[in-house]
């Protein structure tokens, strides 16, 4: 690998780390197409790099979000059981499918995620259908943006478990961290406020990624130099993302995110 390539991987990791921390998705959904389409890295190797990068994003963002009390740790631990099982099965499946098939699956997935993001824009950041009723998975945090405490109770836990299994499977299969599915699902179906959903996803995605990273390592898909450059960039990007998360409007970031997803979806399907 040349110094030029190392710099581009580092820069790409930094940008995706910021976006991943802001949206609770780990950044793999951006980083993997970047590695494949612009740096010509084989998709299996890119997915393995994305999975390791997700661990870096989770490590940087989760600690800050837990300190802010945005993270619903109990909910994260419950959903992580189904997510981890799905991630292991997805990691096994990924080494059976061809690179072309994975590219098309990724493209279709991006279209689905873009649709979910459009729904998020229509609902608005404040629509989380939260409640002050008590429940065993209830949560509360102080939101500095609206200067008041937000209380909520998690709804439809079985549905959340089912979607988490799917998210984990997609994480292991495509190296995306699963947050692209879990964040909209927690907000739209389980009545978790967006900030809590994003923070809880960041808390979960690292565990999910670790579950499938060992499988990619066993198949020699993790390139040490590429991965190290990616992790350094993603780690610093995630720190920046968590710092500015309270200052940037979620609606604006979501709109940019949706446009990027649609462009990448077309490129991956046509590849």
Account of the 3D structure:
- There is one protein chain.
- With 271 residues, this protein is mainly alpha-helical.
- The protein has one domain.
- The protein has helices spanning 3-23, 28-39, 43-68, 73-94, 99-123, 157-174, 179-188, 194-218, 224-244, 250-270, and strands at residues 138-143, 148-153.
- The protein has a two-stranded antiparallel sheet with strand order 1-2.
- Strand 1 and strand 2 form a beta hairpin.
- Helix 1 (3-23) runs parallel beside helix 9, helix 5 (99-123) runs parallel beside helix 7 (179-188) and helix 7 runs antiparallel to helix 8 (194-218).
- The longest helix is centred in the first third of the chain and has 26 residues, at 43-68.
- It is globular and about 50 Å long.
| Alpha-beta content class | mainly alpha
* Mean of pLDDT: 78
Number of domains: 1
Taking the alpha carbons of the first and last residues, their distance comes to 23 Å
SSE string = HHHHHEEHHHHH
Would you count the extended β strands for me?
2
Evaluate the radius of gyration.
17 Å
Biggest sheet record: 2 strands, antiparallel
Strand order of the largest sheet: 1-2
- Fraction of helical residues: over 70%
Beta content comes to under 5%
Essential attributes:
2 strands, single chain, globular, mainly alpha, 271 residues, two-stranded antiparallel sheet
């Amino acid at each position: 690998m040349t110094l030029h390539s190392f710099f581009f991987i580092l820069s790409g990791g930094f940008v995706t780390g910021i976006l991943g921390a802001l949206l609770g998705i780990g950044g793999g959904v951006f980083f993997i197409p970047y590695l494949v389409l612009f740096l010509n890295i084989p998709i299996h190797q890119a997915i393995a790099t994305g999975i390791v990068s997700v661990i870096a994003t989770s490590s940087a963002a989760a600690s800050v979000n837990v300190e802010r009390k945005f993270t619903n740790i109990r909910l994260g631990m419950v959903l992580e059981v189904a997510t981890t099982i799905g991630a292991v099965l997805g990691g096994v499946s990924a080494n059976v499918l061809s690179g072309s098939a994975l590219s098309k699956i990724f493209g279709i997935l991006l279209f689905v995620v873009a649709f979910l993001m459009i729904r998020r824009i229509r609902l608005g950041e404040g629509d989380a259908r939260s409640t002050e009723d008590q429940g065993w998975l209830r949560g509360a945090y102080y939101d500095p943006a609206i200067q008041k405490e937000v209380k909520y109770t998690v709804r439809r836990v079985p549905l959340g478990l089912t979607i988490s299994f799917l998210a984990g499977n997609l994480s292991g299969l495509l190296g995306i961290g699963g947050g692209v599915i879990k964040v909209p699902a927690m907000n739209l179906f389980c009545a978790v406020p967006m900030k809590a959903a994003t923070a809880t996803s960041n808390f979960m995605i690292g565990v999910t990624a670790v579950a499938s990273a060992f499988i990619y390592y066993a198949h020699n898909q993790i390139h040490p130099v590429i991965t190290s450059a990616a992790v350094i960039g993603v780690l610093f990007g995630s720190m920046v993302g968590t710092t500015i998360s309270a200052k940037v409007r979620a609606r604006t970031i979501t709109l940019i995110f949706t446009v990027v997803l649609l462009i990448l979806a077309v490129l991956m399907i046509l590849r």
